[in-house]
Write a structure and sequence with these properties.
The protein contains two helices and seven strands. With about 170 residues, it is α/β, with parallel strands linked by helices. The strands form two sheets. A four-stranded mixed sheet has the order 4-7-6-5, with helices on one face. It has a three-stranded mixed sheet with strand order 1-3-2, covered by helices on one side.
């Protein structure tokens, strides 16, 4: 098996570390160093590495002044607790970059926000929801996908074999 460790340059490792832990609903812990930290999944999989700008001689991590942070990068995370992640995200930022919507390619609900360093972060539910089967009437469309912000929608269970960011399956009303 091969794994990618995505490493992003940040101005404040501890602050960014806490921000991502809060977004993913993880218990607060300290990064390994003041210049480097790894956000880990519950199974130990590295989700994201945070590296202080200019801490070492890595050419692409010397300074955010060389290019805007996140230029050409999209941090895309699949989660099994979409509604709860949405609630946590709304508590972290004043506005979302993209409100929850269904991605037509993945057929999953997703939303986007910016992290403290300006990186574009997209949160997507782990697996597509099954269409709601209703009797057609004048007010509803048959086989439409449920709205994740609806109080009656429960996030899907984690798909087997895929790492999860958190294991909370409660319906949270944003």
């Amino acid at each position: 098996m091969k794994r990618t460790w995505t490493i992003i340059g940040v101005s404040d490792v501890l602050g960014s570390f806490k921000w991502y832990q809060s977004l993913f609903g993880q218990p607060e812990t300290a990064p390994g160093h003041d210049y480097f930290g790894q956000i880990l999944d519950t199974d130990g999989t590295v989700l994201l590495c945070l590296h202080k700008w200019g801490a070492h001689e890595h050419p692409s991590l010397m300074s955010p002044d060389e290019a805007p942070p996140g230029n050409g990068l999209l941090l895309f995370f699949r989660v099994d607790d979409f509604n709860t992640a949405l609630k946590r995200a709304r508590a972290l930022v004043t506005r979302l970059e993209e409100e929850p919507h269904v991605n037509p390619n993945t057929r999953t609900w997703e939303f986007s926000l910016r992290d403290p360093d300006g990186y574009y972060v997209t949160i997507s539910e782990l697996s597509a929801r099954q269409p709601v089967k209703r009797q057609p009437n004048k007010r509803s469309k048959p086989n439409q996908l449920p709205d994740p912000t609806s109080p009656s929608v429960t996030p899907p269970a984690c798909a087997g074999g895929a790492p999860s960011v958190a294991a909370d399956h409660k319906d949270v009303r944003p």
